[in-house]
From TrEMBL:
Listed GO MF terms: 2-isopropylmalate synthase activity; acetyl-CoA C-acetyltransferase activity; manganese ion binding
Keyword annotations: Amino-acid biosynthesis, Branched-chain amino acid biosynthesis, Cytoplasm, Leucine biosynthesis, Manganese, Metal-binding, Transferase
Name of the protein described by the UniProt record: 2-isopropylmalate synthase
Annotated Pfam families: HCS_D2, HMGL-like, LeuA_dimer
SUPFAM superfamilies per record: 2-isopropylmalate synthase LeuA, allosteric (dimerisation) domain, Aldolase
Organism lineage string: Bacteria, Pseudomonadati, Bacteroidota, Bacteroidia, Bacteroidales
Gene name of this polypeptide: leuA
UniProt key word Chloroplast: no
Recorded GO CC terms: cytoplasm
Top-level class of the enzyme under EC nomenclature: transferase
Family: Belongs to the alpha-IPM synthase/homocitrate synthase family. LeuA type 1 subfamily.
Role description: Catalyzes the condensation of the acetyl group of acetyl-CoA with 3-methyl-2-oxobutanoate (2-ketoisovalerate) to form 3-carboxy-3-hydroxy-4-methylpentanoate (2-isopropylmalate).
Length: 498
């Protein structure tokens, strides 16, 4: 059975741009419009031309720049709005006027102080007026989500009779449950005599987090256009997210619905909109969030590494993300650690892996995320697990007005030794404390401490150079505590001398 097409009506530049702080200039809007064209959207709602000279100009320029998608301009059921929209759309290859009026009891009573019959008359008059200028006229029944279904059917039938090519049934306040919204669309399919002459469109807001679910309920029940935005931006809690509805339809083959979206362009378009609108995408946002394809717990990572589909329903490449990621944290297991170390060129046997894993967990408990350079540091350290002199404990007193003092316990030749010494700083005190135990004649020639600079919780890496009897020995360690790292690096070098 061939799939039915669902038209994607993108309103990022109209409903999305209504978000405080997300306003774009004309050049930025053209950039987004061109990206939407490449993405494959069918309709771009470019703006509300009567609202300001800037918006007027943007719709003109977008109409000139974009050739494939239909360019749509929003209006109220007001003649002047429609005239202005018609004027800008003269430049569009495929123009559409989107006009409409509020249809819920709240809108009819409070916004318009009108009767339902008067609202129907204004709706019909607006559609007829728009038809004078363009063939393609979409009618929106604002707040249809809270409107009485019988009244909605009546107004929808009247505007289709007046020439509307698309009827938009917005859940303006994001109130509906998916079952209610789906039934509303079905009700229109079954109770509007001329419904087959128009396409039914969904336009669902996300006030209860149900925008995607409601839009999908809409198409399951017969709507064939979804209004949506990149990253789900829009008035208040946002609009339906384009990437979500498109990927729901692509993933659920049983729905038998398709869109003309080039899904590989989803991620780049999401980033472009986020950057230009200065609107970060939440990390856990479906499809395009930073964590949407990131696996961070051991059981998931192990399953994912055995077979991607164990924990992924979408291949990230399908949406333009090059690969999934494995984030190493204290919740990661050996499988993930082994995998990452292998990508860094380390092949470990089980014993080595167990040893590094123990060190890894110690570090991961202190840091939020373990990066490759942390692992390189750990591996440098792990290679020396079997050093002759082991640090058992270290306690340092330091700070302003304190005499830097270190007490150290080290294990050497099966015995534990303790020493305490002062110094001109905590590192000097710790090295002096070691010298009270390991008395071999050595010179600490060089001590290099550097941090990996991801923040104050990062690891310090320490390299030392120790001279003994004319020969130079190198020691290395890494630790979130740089004094401990320094002593370990020093003991690493001494282990090669004694
Ligand atoms: C559901 C949506 O419409 S989403 C789009 C929302 N986007 C915007 O509002 C942005 C663009 N809006 C604007 O720039 C301005 O609000 C304008 C230019 C449209 C109107 O500005 P103003 O003339 O100053 O009116 P104001 O915004 O204060 O009030 C809106 C008026 O439009 C009326 N109105 C609202 N919706 C409609 C409609 N669909 N059809 C007819 N009239 C409407 C209101 O009843 C009110 O009229 P009133 O002053 O007679 O009570
Ligand atoms: C103008 C209409 C489509 C709208 O944005 C809404 O009802 O939310």
């Amino acid at each position: 059975m061939s799939k039915e097409k669902v038209y994607i009506f993108d309103t990022t530049l109209r409903d999305g741009e209504q978000v405080p702080g997300c306003q774009l200039n004309t050049i930025e809007k053209i950039e987004v419009a061109l990206a939407l064209e490449k993405l494959g959207v069918d309709i771009i709602e470019a703006g509300f031309p009567i609202s300001s000279p800037g918006d007027f100009n943007s719709v003109v320029e977008i109409s000139k720049a974009v050739s494939e998608p239909t360019i749509c301009a929003l209006t109220r059921a007001v003649e002047k709005d429609i005239e202005v929209a018609a004027e800008v759309l003269r430049y569009a290859k495929h123009p559409r006027i989107h006009t409409g009026i509020g249809v819920s009891p709240y809108h009819i009573k409070y916004k318009f102080n009108a009767t339902p019959e008067e609202v129907i008359q204004r709706a019909v008059a607006a559609v007829k007026y728009a038809k004078r200028f363009v063939e393609d006229v979409e009618f929106y029944a604002e707040d249809a989500g809270r409107a009485d279904n019988r009244f909605l059917a009546k107004i929808v039938e009247a505007v289709i009779g007046a020439g509307a090519t698309v009827v938009n049934i917005p859940d303006t306040t994001g109130y509906c449950l998916p079952s209610e919204y789906g039934s509303k669309i079905l009700f229109l399919k079954e109770n509007v005599s001329n419904i087959d002459k128009a396409i039914i469109s969904t336009h669902c807001h996300n006030d209860l987090g149900l925008a995607t679910a409601n839009s999908i309920a809409g198409v399951i029940n017969g709507a064939r256009q979804i209004e949506c935005t990149i990253n789900g931006i829009g008035e208040r809690a946002g609009n339906t997210s384009l990437e979500e509805v498109v990927m729901v339809m692509k993933s659920h083959k049983g729905l038998n619905l398709e869109t003309s979206i080039n899904t590989k362009k989803i991620f780049p378009t999401s980033r472009l909109v986020s950057t230009l609108m200065r609107m970060p995408v939440q990390a856990n946002k479906a499809i395009v969030g930073r964590n949407a394809f990131a696996h961070s717990s051991g059981i998931h990572q192990d399953g994912f590494l055995k077979n991607r589909e164990t924990y992924e329903i979408i291949n990230p490449k399908q949406v333009g993300i090059s690969e999934s990621s494995i984030v190493l944290t204290a919740r990661s297991g050996r499988a993930a650690l082994k995998h990452r170390l292998a990508t860094l060129g380390y092949k470990l046997d089980q014993k080595q892996l167990d040893d590094v894993y123990a060190e890894f967990l110690n570090l991961a408990d202190k840091k939020r995320e373990i990066h490759n350079d942390d692992l390189e540091a750990l591996m440098g350290k792990a290679a020396r697990f079997d050093r002759k002199i082991q640090l058992e404990s270290l306690q340092v007193i330091c700070g302003k007005s304190a005499i830097p003092t270190a007490t150290i316990r080290i294990k050497y030749e099966g015995q534990v030794w303790e020493g305490t010494e002062t110094g001109n700083g905590p590192i000097d005190a710790a090295i002096n404390a070691v010298k009270t135990i390991i008395t071999a004649k050595t010179t600490l020639e060089e001590l290099l401490i550097h941090t990996i600079t991801r923040g104050s919780d990062d690891m310090g890496k320490v390299h030392v150079q120790v001279e003994s009897k004319g020969k130079v020995f190198y020691g290395f360690s890494a630790n979130t505590d740089v004094i401990t790292a320094t002593v370990e690096a020093y003991l690493d070098a001494l282990s090669q001398i004694v």
